[in-house]
Amino acid sequence: MASAVSLKHVIKSYRRGREKVEVLHALDLEIPQGEFLALMGPSGSGKTTILNLIGGLDRADSGEVIVSGQNLQCLSGGQLAKWRTHNVGFIFQFYNLMPMLSAAANVELPLLLTNLSKAERKKHVAVALEMVGLSDREAHKPGEMSGGQQQRVGIARAIVADPTLLLCDEPTGDLDRKTADEILALLQELNRHHNKTIVMVTHDPRAADHAARQLHFDKGQLTDARATA
Amino acid sequence: MKYLPLIWSAIMRSPARAILTLLSVMVAFTLFGLTIGMNASFDAIEKNAHADRLYTYPRFSNNGLPVAVAGEIGKLPGVAQVAYETFLTGYNQDPKNFVFVTFLNSDVRKLMPDWPLTPVQWDKIAQNRTGVVISRVQAQRWKLKPGDNFTVVAPLFAKADGGKSWTFQVLDVAGDVPYMSDGYMMGNFDYFDKSRPAAQQGRAVQYLVQASDPTRTADIAQLIDTSFANSATPTQSVTEKAAFDSGNSSLDIATVGRDIALAGMFMVLFLTANGIAESVRDRFGEFAVLKTLGYSDTTVMALVFWEAALPCMIGALLGVGLASGISAILPKLFSPDEGTPTLPTMTALVFVWAGLSAAFVALASSVLPALWLKRMDIATALSGR
Predict the structure, then answer these.
(1) Residue B337's pLDDT is what?
(2) ipTM score of the complex?
(3) The pLDDT of residue A149 is above 90
(4) Domain limits of chain A?
(5) How many CB pairs under 8 A join A and B?
(6) What is the assigned CATH class of domain A34-60+84-227?
(7) Which of A227, B23, B81, B109 gives B122 a disulfide partner, CB atoms 3.0 to 4.6 angstroms apart?
(8) Is B297 within 8 Å of A78 when comparing Cβ atoms?
């Protein structure tokens, strides 16, 4: 199966004051298209850094980061922004919705960057909200919705531009068990029925069980890889 | 346009701050509109000044210059024509009702073709010694019409018989002159002069001089003053351009107005800059999300600019609109007795200046926050570090 994501000898370090801390040490990683992958590990293990590199939010010090056939290291800041619009959907732990905008307006945000007409955008937003089961909440603002509903809006925003890759950073970290299971089921559905490649960072083993494969990191190195049932 | 809901939601995130900013901008632009409107009025007056005319007054005396001076001025090189006039001040019925009458020598009509008197009205002044042609403002003020008699008590201007009461017949009503905001009453110089005691006769308070070369009017003014410097009647001359230039007076109203407008602009600039900086700081995480979704640096910076520009533009529009309203109402606030001072003229240029200034304020106040966002490290901003 073709790779959705390919990391080759990726080294990434940060500066903390005068100290240079290497977070990823010559990491190699292949993520096939259509896979639901969970990245696990303790804080500081480098899993969010991997997510940021794959999403084009950060740059590796060296090595290659190839996503959907595009070497992200070769793109400028502006090109990366454009690339993100069409290729990646982001789902955050704290939803990161615009509090003054309705659910529909929040979902529409990525589409404002496209050439779609207002009517087309509206149609896409309606489809995305329907997929996450929130058609009846399009006029509600984030403050008028539960955490689970807000995360569904976040997912609708991530899929509205129809990217092939979804990057989730602790998507259930702020939710109760039941709601978390519903969100994970929704992600599974997007993976299985809509062929989205999903990379999810999580601390929660039960959440990771929803993924097809789990990779465990510690101190910037892959320590364990296992397939889930 | 598609970003408008996003921009509007950002502005209305703090309605109190948005409304207070809008009100401040509006007040500043009202002031701006009025002062720039005043300058537009001064500019219009200055623009209408004749380049070839100048005025000569006695340098020290309040008693005018002998009319013979006109002949001497007329002989100076570069002088095309000379005329003269004098004034009577007094009151009608009550000392509070101030009256000002100008008496013109017959040559004035040749030098002042821009005054709105018809040839018939000029002839009437020349032919009717006790008559005056008055402007509409004066006719309205004193409720006069042609044929009416009008008496002026002039304690400082006695007649030859000692009487201080001057009665004039209204010959006609003529158009107003923009720079004579109180209107005018114009009569026959010879009648006034011959009615005065012998010792006071043959004197004029102001000389109107026309230069043959409009580019040399200032030189002619200087030449006149130099020629009479050591005479018994030293003069002071000023070109009409300089006389109508508000910047030439001891209080440069146009510059003061511009400075006030500028101070208002800076006040608004600091206020808007502070507001927009605070707003961007509060929503740094949200901008990080927008950049994560694919919003480019340019788009995010444009959003910040429009977030500053919308209140500025709306405030400027409301402010200049209010200034226009005030300018329209102002003339009604002055009674005819007081005359009407120079009022702001709300030309299209005033609106253009207001729009440009609002855009500048928005641009200047959004530069720094926009640069913060451009330099933002998305990964760091998302992590909340």
Answers:
(1) 52
(2) 0.92
(3) yes
(4) 34-60+84-227
(5) 68
(6) alpha beta
(7) B109
(8) yes
